[in-house]
Amino acid sequence: MSQSLAKECNELKERYDTCFLKWYSEKYLRGISTTDNNECAGLFKEYSKCLHVALKERGIDKLVEEAREDNKENDAALLGKKKSGYITARWDLVTRLYELAIFAWDYGVVSRAAKGFAALTLVFVLIFIPVERLATLESNLGPEFRLENN
């Protein structure tokens, strides 16, 4: 199992992942338990709280709330149909979203992407555009500049 990206939440994540995988494989998939009777819910709440604090400290909580707001209609539609396993799967996805947001923040993913884009733009402007212009000029030369007429 992977570590939590908020180091202070590693132990809670490990306990939740272990509980969830055991419950899912031994009970849920065999029809012994339902998503309404998930014994790992308490562990998930603890882990979720820990991640929420880490997100708030890093200022990422607003991004997560915006993502949730954008998908509110989809969530309402799925929850209204009471799809089996949806809530459990959503728990896991929310946890992964928290971890991804923390990872992106800690490792400067956005700033790295912006730097890469700037570098590629510079290469394009300094190399590809001049070469294209030169090729266009060369192909449009009149017959007086061609080798056959010498």
List the helices and strands and how they pair.
Elements: H1 10-28, H2 41-58, H3 61-70, H4 72-81, H5 86-106, H6 109-139
Helix pairs in contact: 1-2, 2-5
What does this molecule look like?
The chain is mostly helical. Helices cover 73% and strands 0% of the residues. It is built from six helices and no strands. It has helices at 10-28, 41-58, 61-70, 72-81, 86-106, 109-139. Helix 2 packs parallel to helix 5. The model has no long low-confidence stretch (mean pLDDT 77).
Explain briefly what this protein structure is:
The chain has 150 residues and is an all-alpha fold. It is built from six helices and no strands.
